[in-house]
Design a protein that fits this description.
- It is a single chain.
- By secondary structure, the chain is of the alpha/beta class.
- The protein has a single domain, classed as Rossmann fold (3-Layer(aba) Sandwich).
- It is built from six helices and seven strands; from the N terminus they run βαβαβαβαβαβαβ.
- Helix 3 runs parallel beside helix 4 and helix 4 runs parallel beside helix 5.
- The relative contact order is 0.15.
- Belongs to the short-chain dehydrogenases/reductases (SDR) family.
Length: about 240
C-alpha cells in the first residue's frame, strides 16, 4: 500500500461536490491538496472547511479549465508552493440538458469547453510534472460517457469524449510511469445542475465514496492500473431491493 503523506494533488472544480469529496479524502491521508474554482471566494470557503477535516494542507486557487493559461498558472502555483505534483484530478464539469431543438450554441460550447477541452487543458498543463513524479491523472467522466439519453446531446458528447480521450491518453503516457484512470459515476448526491442534496439522496453515490475510491487508486501498487471504473448506486429507486 502506497503512503500518501505529503504527496501533492490538484483538483479542478474542487470547491464542492465530487471534487470536494475527493479533496477531503486525500487530506485525511495527509496529502497536500490544491483545489480550483472559477471564483477565489468559493475556493477560499472550501479550503476553510477542508482545513478542519484532514491532517493535510490545502491551497485555494482561482482558475477556469476553459482557459489553458489559467490551468498552467494553477499548476505553476502548486509547483511554486510544494515543488511537485503527484495527482491531477480533472473534475470540473457542468450540464446543460435540452432537446437538440432547444439547446443553444452557447450551451453547447460551454459544455464541451468545460467538460472535454478542460480535461485536455488540465493534463496538457500538468503532464511534465506528472512525468517527473510518475504521478496519476484521474478524469471524472460519467456513465453518460457510454450511455446516451434524450436531452443529453451536449452532455453525452462531452462525457463520451472524456472517456475516449482519457483512455487514449492512458496509452500515450503510461510508458512514462504516469497512470491514468477514468472514473464514471452514475447518480451522485451533489449540487450538480442546481440539485440540492437531501435525505432523499441516501440511495445515491455519496461524494465521500468517490473520495475513498481515489484514495484506493492512489494506494494501489503502481504495477496495476484500473484504467476505467464504472460506479453505480447499489440499490437505486425501483430496483426492487
Amino acid at each position: 500500500m502506497q503512503n500518501l503523506t505529503n504527496k501533492t494533488a490538484l483538483i479542478t472544480g474542487g470547491s464542492k461536490g465530487i471534487g470536494y469529496g475527493i479533496a477531503a479524502a486525500l487530506m485525511a491521508q495527509g496529502m497536500r491538496v490544491a483545489i480550483t474554482s472559477r471564483t477565489q471566494a468559493s475556493a477560499d470557503q472550501a479550503v476553510q472547511e477542508l482545513s478542519k477535516l484532514g491532517t493535510g494542507e490545502a491551497l485555494a486557487l482561482e482558475a477556469d479549465v476553459r482557459d489553458f493559461d489559467s490551468q498552467q498558472q494553477a499548476i505553476n502555483k502548486v509547483l511554486d508552493k510544494w515543488g511537485q505534483l503527484d495527482l491531477l484530478v480533472a473534475n470540473a464539469g457542468i450540464g446543460h440538458f435540452a432537446s437538440i431543438e432547444d439547446l443553444t450554441l452557447d450551451q453547447w460550447h460551454e459544455t464541451i469547453d468545460t467538460n472535454l477541452t478542460g480535461v485536455f487543458y488540465s493534463i496538457k498543463a500538468g503532464l511534465e510534472s506528472l512525468k517527473k513524479s510518475k504521478g496519476y491523472f484521474i478524469s471524472i467522466s460519467s456513465l453518460a460517457g457510454t450511455n446516451f439519453f434524450a436531452n443529453g446531446s451536449a452532455y453525452n458528447a462531452s462525457k463520451f469524449g472524456v472517456t475516449g480521450f482519457s483512455q487514449a491518453a492512458m496509452l500515450d503516457i503510461r510508458k512514462y510511469g504516469v497512470r491514468v484512470t477514468t472514473i464514471m459515476p452514475g447518480s451522485v448526491s451533489t449540487y450538480f445542475n442546481d440539485h440540492q442534496p437531501s435525505d432523499k439522496d441516501a440511495w445515491k453515490i455519496q461524494i465521500e465514496d468517490l473520495g475513498q475510491m481515489v484514495v484506493d487508486l492512489m494506494q494501489m501498487n503502481p504495477r496495476t492500473l484500473p484504467s476505467k471504473v464504472e460506479v453505480r448506486p447499489t440499490t437505486p429507486p425501483g430496483s426492487g431491493a
